[in-house]
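Sample intake sheet
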Amino acid sequence: MIDSIRGENLLSLDELSREAIVEVLDTAEAFVEVNQRAIKKVPALKGRVVASLFFEESTRTRLSFETAAKRLSADVLSLAVASSSMKKGESLRDTIATVDALGIDAVVMRHQSSGAALQVSRYVPHVRVINGGDGLHQHPTQGLLDAFTIRQVLAERRGTTGVESGSELFEGLHVLIVGDVRHSRVARSDIAAYVALGAEVRIAAPGTLLPECVAQWPVGVARDFDEAIEWADVLGLLRLQRERGSGSFVPTLGEFTATHGLTVERARRIKSDALIMHPGPMNRGIEIDSLVADSSAAVIERQVHNGVPIRMAVLYLSVAGSTEGQGS
């Protein structure tokens, strides 16, 4: 297990210890304050170059990573894959070699193939590689920001800070992850983070949308979704990923909503202080009703907001590799 990502790649949360995860969350707390300033910038990565390589479409992740890098004063190279040489048949290895030749310190990468980030880390071992999502494998910064959001809200309710509470807030916490678990890299990263921090996790999905290896996961499987929502302190909803073929795993979208959608009626049955989360983009009216998504129990916008300080923390720890330069 990795006990710190200082000077290291971030490819998966499965390989991070509780201490490493808490270190990222604590570092992000400091960057929350930076993002509240009139001038939202620190010189932590001044003179460093971060390449943003997204081979899959992205809005939240790409924008928050590029914003995070710029707020750390790094220079950002952004590759437009649609107009890159990869469209002419250039290999991933040659594309990375070309970008590396420009002189980069880190690469943030999203790719449709599982393991692509790991492969790139082998091509350029002198460059820090941050996985922005690879196939059905992992989306580590989403898992970190989801854990950060939960810790932040629960700490506020106690009148403390997340740093003061550490991972204590997750001990005994009931987390229910619902929806297209089979195709979700977010689910895999969320589960790794929550379990490492001490939460009890269950998943709920139609049988066809459960992963084949679910028996090997450190989670329980909720066979009755309506019963499970009454158990949960946190409900993490997942998008039905039709671009990955998940639409063919359910008879109709309406049937999925009827059995596993968080409707207004179901939302009335959750605990009064339960949190509702969604990594986005949402299919409103399918996995979650619009009224529920916009309710006071939902922290979906806060998740988006927290993407920047978490990714600042990851870039800072991974690229700078020390605590120097975090000041204003």
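Comment: The CA atoms of residues 34 and 323 lie 15 Å apart. The domain at 140-304 is CATH 3.40.50.1370 (Rossmann fold).
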